[in-house]
């Protein structure tokens, strides 16, 4: 049992933590301007116009936040435009006034609903338009005789309800084609007691003359069809949509009722395909000379189509049937209570038709409904306070309302976005009797957005102030107050921890080289995690925990600062988990100064400041006052006599630092060791000890100064000459080596070409033989003579 209780307690605490977390961080805080803030679907979002909202903490609050957060954080000026409604016209419910108010103006903010009460009073002696639609198939032959006497009886009954009523009469059978009727039966066509099959006839439009109604019924003849279902829906559709031809009065000036009497079922959408009618019903009027001429073009309508048209035209159906009552009860239920549809059973001979109509009408007259067709993006839900005063959620009608009784509907309007912000959103809320005109406006901009302070002082005279935000010259300046140039704003070096890539440690925004840390949130322990530091690197919840998981053991033991516990007196440890001695005796020096004035006493031990050590923080080890320079002149004049000070000045200089003695040593200790250079460019070394009781200084001085040796000029000159000569010889040797290598390569190549050479025999082209032979041109004419030879 204890485990179960513990688990339930854990769940309870977890829920509280979730609620707290949700309150500290919400979607509102992601919005950057006033318009986006109030457009948020969260109706609790509010905008703070205060430009210096928590600036002193270097951690700005979010300008868009929950209203309750702004109030806690003491915002000076909050912008939070609510949804509202205003009644423009509201006449009292008397006389012809049946609905109040008649006109309203509604301002809607996204996500924030507004409700308006609409009062409706059922009027006395309200006009009635009653249209009687009768099945004329052969199966209704016995009923026709009783119905033919209907006119006078029905008129007498309606006179008891209202003095202003009109009656109309129409007939239906079915489509005049197979397989719905005997299309080729000559016997039926030659029978004069019946009439040719038809779909629908408007025999008598709505009329105040009761005699004409009775006459129209009496002159009616039965017709034929084959199948059991009738074309009742097709006829009913024409009665509903042919407003002018039927003679319906304005739907706000009279209650519209149609009575459908039949003994059969009905054809519906899809049945027309059997006769070849593939076009779906277009829901329009097709009466010509009061006959329906569209029967051979369109399929039968659907029940959904009939219901929608009846609701739109505010016509109430009464299904009076001699058979298939269960079917028509289901149809009436499908139409819904708001439609006022009624299904009732007739006697087999329809003898009870008049009382049935009266009973059905009285039931209809007690129904008051309300509806609206709002613009896209606007939702309306109705609540009804009916005759018994009971509030019913999501109900747009009242039943059993007595004549002259008043009912109230609450219309809750809501929009979820600003898609209609710039559009004309006028629409009507419709009741059974009159309409309410609604002028709707969607709030998507803040009032402060209509004004702007040019070159505001708060914006460093570099931008315009609107809704508490500086709009800087985007080409030149940036920052919350336009306080820096674009180049400075883009430099994020100062907003990064060394060796860390993320800006402001990933917990803030860099603005003009300065980190603006995020607002603190609750952690899993229910603590506010406050982010701070130059780079938002610190948190007050990242320290160790003790004493039952408490941060630094709880506020009684210590506090967390940038990841380190600062323990209170008498507590110590990384998480202030250890209790210690409460005294301070071990922290006092001989002068009675706690920790020598260089630390604090905790747990009877000194905690030294940075740079100091020792049980009493008496020794400085870093960032100390420069004692070496302080004692420099005294050592120079007292020990080495290299100072410009005379004897008296030297005594005063040493007395100033309370130097009491000098000791010359070959080597001084490393502790507090000083190396100082003098005017001779020599260094002298000394260390010092301080008597913590007397405060006197003892100097331990190294006996010999460390001076640089005199330079050997001759050695330097000879070294330079030797260097020059050496470099010259080296260059010469390198040149000689390279030349030798090149010669060897050339000789080797020549030798190789010589060995590979091949010589061909030939004559010298300029060589001439010692003798030449010429032919004597006359030699052919003297064949007996020997040719001459010329020797050259």
Automatic annotation (TrEMBL):
What are the top taxonomic ranks of the organism? Answer: Eukaryota, Metazoa, Cnidaria, Hydrozoa, Hydroidolina
Organism listed in the record? Hydra vulgaris
Where in the cell?
Answer: Cell membrane
GO BP term, example: cell-matrix adhesion
Membrane-spanning residues where?
A: 713-735
What is this protein's gene name?
ITGB1
Bias (Polar residues): 771-785
Keyword vocabulary terms for this entry: Cell adhesion, Cell membrane, Disulfide bond, EGF-like domain, Glycoprotein, Integrin, Membrane, Phosphoprotein, Repeat, Signal, Transmembrane, Transmembrane helix
Protein name as catalogued: Integrin beta
Q: How does it sit in the membrane?
A: Single-pass type I membrane protein
Q: Annotated region Disordered: where?
A: 771-792
SUPFAM superfamilies per record:
EGF/Laminin, Integrin beta tail domain, Integrin domains, Plexin repeat, vWA-like
- Every VWFA domain range: 129-264
Q: Which Gene Ontology cellular component annotation is one that this UniProt entry carries?
A: integrin complex
S-S bonds: 34-45, 37-75, 48-64, 242-285, 386-398, 444-448, 467-504, 472-482, 484-495, 510-515, 512-552, 517-536, 538-543, 560-565, 562-595, 567-576, 601-606, 603-650, 608-617, 620-624, 628-637, 634-707, 654-682
Q: Which is an annotated GO molecular function term of this record?
A: integrin binding
Q: Which domain of life is it from?
A: Eukaryota
Q: Which family does it belong to?
A: Belongs to the integrin beta chain family.
As given in the record, the signal peptide range reads 1-23
Pfam families, A to Z = EGF_2, EGF_integrin, Integrin_b_cyt, Integrin_B_tail, Integrin_beta
